[in-house]
Q: What sequence folds into this?
């Protein structure tokens, strides 16, 4: 799919960044010590560091045609974090690879939103980009994110050490076949929620729906 892409899930819109509007929210997110506890450099980011992060995210989109989206609740305008796919160049010993990542404002934790955004990202990677596998590189003590990865059907590979912090990282991985099974499995914590269908299956009304930026989907976007 050419051009910037928007993905709608049941409760979220994963959309291109609007730097002027979204940078304050990203800076606030990355200035939260609890959010950054398990993410290098394992401390709050300064405003300039968050601005540089957004520049890298946008450069990745330009270079590769995919990347990390800004995440916006469909019933609440404004960026609450990010999720999507990126090449984990910070960890050369796992390359070549594509990583699914997520980072949400702490006020939105505990609602299954990270899992919802990550599932949509993995589905996009398999169904639209044709990836054979996706990884997620997580601090081995970050139980919350490891549980999200497990819900995606990911299995642990050999641990690695972060090249700068030397913290132990768990490399979780899911192949296309395992991802299909996980995307079709109900979330045990939210059994009423319908998961995304496996690759190649008919899409229902609640499945993640990619569309090009500038075009409205059937349900529209929160805050638009």
A:
């Amino acid at each position: 799919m050419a051009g910037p892409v928007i993905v709608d899930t049941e409760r979220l819109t994963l959309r291109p960044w609007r730097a002027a509007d979204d940078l304050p929210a990203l800076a606030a997110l990355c200035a939260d010590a609890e959010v950054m506890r398990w993410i290098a450099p394992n401390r709050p980011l300064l405003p300039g560091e968050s601005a540089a992060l957004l520049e890298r995210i946008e450069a990745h989109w330009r270079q590769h045609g995919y990347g990390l989206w800004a995440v916006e609740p469909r019933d609440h305008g404004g960026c609450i974090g990010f999720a999507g796919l990126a090449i984990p160049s910070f960890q050369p010993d796992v390359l070549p690879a594509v990583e699914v990542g997520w980072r949400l404002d702490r006020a939105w934790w505990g609602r299954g939103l990270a899992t919802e955004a990550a599932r949509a990202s993995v589905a996009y990677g398999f169904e639209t980009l044709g990836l054979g596998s996706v990884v997620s590189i997580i601090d081995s003590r970050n139980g919350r994110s490891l549980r999200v990865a497990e819900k995606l059907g990911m299995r642990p590979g050999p641990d690695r050490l972060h090249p700068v912090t030397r913290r132990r990282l768990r490399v979780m991985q899911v192949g296309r076949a395992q991802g299909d099974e996980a995307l079709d499995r109900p979330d045990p914590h939210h059994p009423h929620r319908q998961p995304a269908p496996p690759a190649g299956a008919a899409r229902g009304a609640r499945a993640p729906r990619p569309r090009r930026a500038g075009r409205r989907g059937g349900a529209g976007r929160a805050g638009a």
About this structure: Residues 187-206, 215-224 have pLDDT under 50 and may be disordered. The chain has one domain: 5-200. The chain has five helices and ten strands. Residues 85 and 195 are 19 Å apart (CA to CA).
